[in-house]
Amino acid sequence: RKKANDGTISVNRLAYRNYEVLEKMTAGISLIGTEVKSIRDGKMNLRDGFVKPTKEGQCYLHNVHIGQHTGVGAYFRHDELRIRPLLLNKNEARKLAQKVDQKGMTVVPLKAFFNERNLVKIEIGLCRGKNVRDKRDTIKEREAKRETNR
């Protein structure tokens, strides 16, 4: 697979379909060397991922699949679905934890990319779940937009 020119690694399209994104922020991610090599090969999947903030001011990324790197021995291989800490400011993490607890929202990874310093960053979003009616409304809006463009 070819990478996009803007440094994008992976986009979670399912999150935009199933959730209404209220707030976006960028966070760093703590990775092991073989994970970075696998990400450069394009072996990252954000589809089932979610972020779990703690009250102590930390956030952890769960269920994000980073495939194993093929060129290394068994000793250096990483666990594909391990829980990875996000690098956020303590106040930002606390705010996320408060919003998730109070309003019943969730935090979902939306996009993974390389920044200008070539570091892996994750764009996370504070989201509210959509019900079937909301999904139908977005489909109708999209169809109407296509018709006007035609």
TrEMBL record:
Keywords: Cytoplasm, RNA-binding. It comes from the Eukaryota. Pfam families: SmpB. One of its GO terms (molecular function) is RNA binding. GO terms for cellular component: cytosol. One of its GO terms (biological process) is trans-translation-dependent protein tagging. PROSITE patterns: SSRP. InterPro entries: SmpB, SsrA-bd_prot, SsrA-bd_prot_CS. HAMAP family: SmpB. This is SsrA-binding protein. It comes from Leptocylindrus danicus.
